[in-house]
Each structure stands twice: as structure tokens, then as C-alpha cells.
Design brief:
By secondary structure, the chain is of the alpha/beta class. It contains eleven helices and eight strands. It has two domains: 7-167, 3-Layer(aba) Sandwich (Rossmann fold); 176-269, ProC C-terminal domain-like fold (Orthogonal Bundle). The chain is 51% helix and 15% strand. Strand 1 (7-12), helix 1 (16-27) and strand 2 (36-39) form a beta-alpha-beta unit.
């Protein structure tokens, strides 16, 4: 396997996540545009990629590259991996961000010829603020793992986990943005129902989420301690928390994450 190939990385799939990955890798200087190739079959998407990433090589066909990231739909996993095996020059390693496809299957599809890594980023990857988790397949080394970690750092933060924990990651941070947006939706609507202008309500909720996340990231206190700091006895926040408890909010959130995790396990077995 040759590290001196024309392309440092081939990204298979030029959708939103694939293009976000290109942005992050170039912005972080992990690679120059001319060192990255992206494989995309849709003609309109090809035009978009060429217009937005000057110097990026866009192709319908696979190219020879030192490494590859697969960002296609899970149903295309088998076809994609088998196509890799048929290449004259294989990538040195492959990182999959396909949901629900375990490395065991990916290794099987590629006949064990390429080290496989698997990651679960979330949708804030689109603004280079992802929370990602990365696991290695049984045929991957620590060197392969570090390669994958450096790629994912271009999208945001990365945690290394055993693959068996990726289902919990899917339920927690993979689906997590939807839970947060759902809460934001309810808060914005409540503000509007209380007489606030819709845009003002949205602005206030958005900044509340941004500020709270920043505070939690920078603080040594736990989430519980930070919540207690805001909750004065018999105050407005205390009344709000009391109502959330009466409605079963806390347990509902935990159960949602557990159910999403269970569904991730089911999908990987289908």
C-alpha cells in the first residue's frame, strides 16, 4: 500500500456530511483540496462540490488513495466495500460513518483486506461542531485509530470507545441533537404563546442553549450542580423544575436515549 499516491484521502459520498468533512479537513489543514477526492454519483451534487471546493477532485468512480472514508447509506455498504476490494490499489485503511453497520460485516464485505474503523458523528458536524465516537475493528491497529481520530477532529470533538458502546453513543449523542431541538421547539412555542415575538423567542432560546453549553464546557461543576446554581428555593426556576418533574421529564429523557439505543442494536442485526 503506497502512501505516496496522488490522493491522501478519498471520501465516498458527497452529501452534507461528506462535504462537511471536506470543509473541516481543509480548514484544519489536514489536507489540501488537491489531496482529497470525493466520489459522488449524483450529477447535480457533483456541480455543487466543484463550485464550492476549488481544486477538489470529484469523480463518479473510485480513485487510488492512501485512505478512505465511507459516507454512504447503510444499504450501500456491501456494494461499496466489495468495490474497494476490486481495486488495483487498496486504501491503507477505511473509516465508516454508516449507521448500524458493524465492523464485523464491513470486514466480511472487504474480505479482511483493509483495516476498518467505525465512527458515529452527529449532525452538528455540518457546522464543524460534532460530537463523534470512534471504534476500531478487530483488524485495525492503534495507528489506524489515531488516523481516524485526526480526521474526525476536523468535524469537532472525538471520544474513543469500544465498538459495543457505539449503540449507546447513537442513542445519546447521535440522536441527541433531535432531543435538544425538540426542547428548543417547545421553549420557543411557549415564548410565543406568552406574547413574545417569534423571532425574539427563537433568539433568546438559541442564545440560552449556546450560553448554557459554553458554561457547562468551561465549568468544573457537574450538570446537576450547574442546574442547582440556577434554581433558587421557591423561585421561578424551582417552580419550572417542579413542573418538569411532575410531568416525568427527567425519566422521559433517559428512557428516550435507552429506546434509541435499543433501536440501534436492532438495526445492526437486521
Amino acid at each position: 500500500m503506497n502512501d505516496d499516491l496522488q490522493f491522501k484521502l478519498m471520501i465516498v459520498g458527497g452529501g452534507r456530511l461528506g462535504s462537511a468533512l471536506v470543509s473541516g479537513l481543509i480548514e484544519s489543514e489536514w489536507a489540501k483540496p488537491k489531496e482529497v477526492a470525493i466520489v459522488e454519483k449524483d450529477a447535480l451534487r457533483q456541480v455543487f462540490l466543484k463550485d464550492n471546493f476549488k481544486g477538489l477532485f470529484v469523480s463518479e468512480s473510485y480513485v487510488e488513495a492512501s485512505g478512505a472514508v465511507i459516507v454512504v447509506k447503510p444499504k450501500d455498504a456491501k456494494e461499496t466495500l466489495e468495490a474497494f476490494v476490486s481495486q488495483k490499489t487498496l486504501p491503507k485503511r477505511i473509516l465508516s460513518v454508516m449507521a448500524g453497520i458493524r465492523t464485523e460485516k464491513l470486514i466480511q464485505y472487504s474480505h479482511g483486506r483493509v483495516p476498518i474503523l467505525r465512527a458515529m458523528p452527529n449532525t452538528p458536524a455540518l457546522v464543524l461542531s460534532a460530537a463523534s465516537a470512534l471504534a476500531k475493528g478487530e483488524n485495525a491497529t492503534d495507528e489506524d485509530l489515531e488516523w481516524g481520530r485526526q480526521i474526525l477532529l476536523a468535524l469537532g470533538a472525538v471520544e474513543i470507545v469500544d465498538e459495543e458502546k457505539l449503540d449507546a453513543v447513537t442513542g445519546l449523542s447521535g440522536s441527541g441533537p433531535a432531543y435538544i431541538f425538540y426542547l428548543a421547539q417547545a421553549m420557543i412555542e411557549a415564548g410565543i404563546e406568552l406574547g413574545l415575538d417569534p423571532q425574539i423567542s427563537k433568539n433568546l432560546v438559541t442564545q440560552t442553549f449556546l450560553g448554557s453549553a459554553t458554561l457547562m464546557a468551561q465549568s468544573k461543576e457537574s450538570a446537576r450542580e450547574l442546574r442547582e446554581m440556577v434554581t433558587s428555593p421557591n423561585g421561578t426556576t424551582a417552580k419550572g423544575i417542579e413542573t418538569l418533574d411532575q410531568e416525568g421529564f427527567y425519566d422521559a429523557v433517559k428512557n428516550a436515549i435507552k429506546q434509541a439505543t435499543s433501536r440501534s442494536i436492532e438495526m445492526s442485526q437486521e
